[in-house]
């Protein structure tokens, strides 16, 4: 009898231990509690996500969030919806770590500035139509944001409001097809942990060294399909970790020694095709660097002038093409 009691006690202890060890973010609430939204776990090691599709009433979204106050989610996803805002309680109560919004209309991001005293992972907007301009001050109480991705969503400038309110430990920023045209002169200078920056399909005409920290930890820099016609000579100075550089589809005609000669030999990816590159004497420096590994899709760029070099790959240029140039 005593051994039986001991066994039951052990089993009970194991059961309680397992229950206590269960992460709250691995448990979905009852389906009826969060209709018309739903909860799912996308992979074995993933935590649960709250997903809402085709929500057209703010009260419905607010009610779903309120009813699930006893639960936590790793991710909240809003898709094909039209609402005023995302309830800030998703952060303070449900402790979401990632926010994804797709093809939706909103007035503002949140009903109030969320207080996020934990590590926030991803903010992703794709085709989001906002009746107000983006209010970066709503992120002023975030302890951290690891990654921000904004696609097909109007964002005409990155200004002081972005710089002053986004946590400085941001690691990745992607802005794609958002009509971005203006960058503050020191926009990224205080983001000392930034390792990936992608600004693609916009109207940016100028970038400056002052926009980045010094030293800069960027490993990947993409500024493609913009309106860049020239780059300052010191742009890539004090960027010791830069390995991937893409400047595709701009208006760059000169690849000057001051700008490129010191950084290009260190790169594992250098894409500069779809630019009107003039292969005159100013690019003679390229023949002095090792281009034996410039193969495949990771290195690209062609001459558009002079006529005798039109279509010539940058990797194939040699001293014979510059015999007329003075040292």
Automatic annotation (TrEMBL):
Signal peptide per UniProt: 1-21
Xref: Gene3D superfamilies: Ribonuclease Inhibitor
PANTHER family given in the database record: AGAP008170-PA, INSULIN-LIKE GROWTH FACTOR-BINDING PROTEIN COMPLEX ACID LABILE SUBUNIT
The organism's place on the tree of life at top rank: Eukaryota
Protein name: Uncharacterized protein
Pfam families, per database record: LRR_8
Keyword line: Leucine-rich repeat, Repeat, Signal
């Amino acid at each position: 009898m005593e051994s039986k009691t001991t066994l039951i006690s052990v089993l009970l202890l194991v059961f309680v231990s397992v229950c206590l060890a269960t992460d709250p973010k691995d448990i979905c609430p009852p389906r009826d509690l969060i209709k018309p939204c739903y909860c799912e776990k996308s992979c074995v090691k993933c935590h649960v996500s709250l997903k809402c599709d085709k929500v057209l009433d703010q009260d419905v979204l607010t009610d779903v969030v309120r009813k699930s106050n006893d639960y936590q989610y790793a991710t909240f996803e809003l898709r094909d919806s039209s609402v005023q805002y995302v309830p800030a309680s998703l952060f303070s109560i449900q402790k979401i770590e990632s926010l994804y919004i797709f093809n939706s209309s909103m007035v503002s991001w949140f009903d109030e500035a969320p207080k996020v005293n934990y590590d926030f992972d991803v903010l992703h907007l794709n085709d989001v139509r906002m009746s107000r301009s983006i209010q970066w001050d709503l992120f002023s109480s975030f302890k951290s944001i690891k990654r921000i991705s904004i696609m097909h969503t109007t964002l005409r400038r990155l200004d002081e409001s972005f710089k002053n309110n986004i946590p400085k430990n941001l690691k990745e920023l992607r802005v794609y097809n958002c009509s971005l045209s203006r960058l503050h002169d020191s926009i990224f200078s205080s983001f000392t942990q930034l390792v990936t920056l992608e600004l693609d399909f916009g109207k940016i005409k100028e970038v400056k060294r002052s926009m980045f920290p010094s030293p800069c930890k960027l490993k990947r820099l993409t500024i493609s399909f913009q309106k860049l016609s020239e780059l300052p000579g010191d742009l890539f100075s004090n960027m010791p970790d830069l390995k991937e550089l893409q400047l595709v589809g701009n208006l760059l005609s000169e690849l000057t020694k001051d700008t490129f000669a010191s950084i290009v030999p260190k790169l594992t990816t250098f894409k500069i095709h779809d630019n009107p590159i003039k292969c005159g004497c100013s690019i003679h420096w390229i023949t002095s660097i090792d281009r034996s590994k410039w193969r495949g899709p990771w290195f690209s760029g062609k001459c558009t002038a002079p006529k005798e070099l039109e279509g010539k790959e940058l990797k194939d240029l040699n001293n014979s093409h510059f015999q007329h140039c003075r040292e």
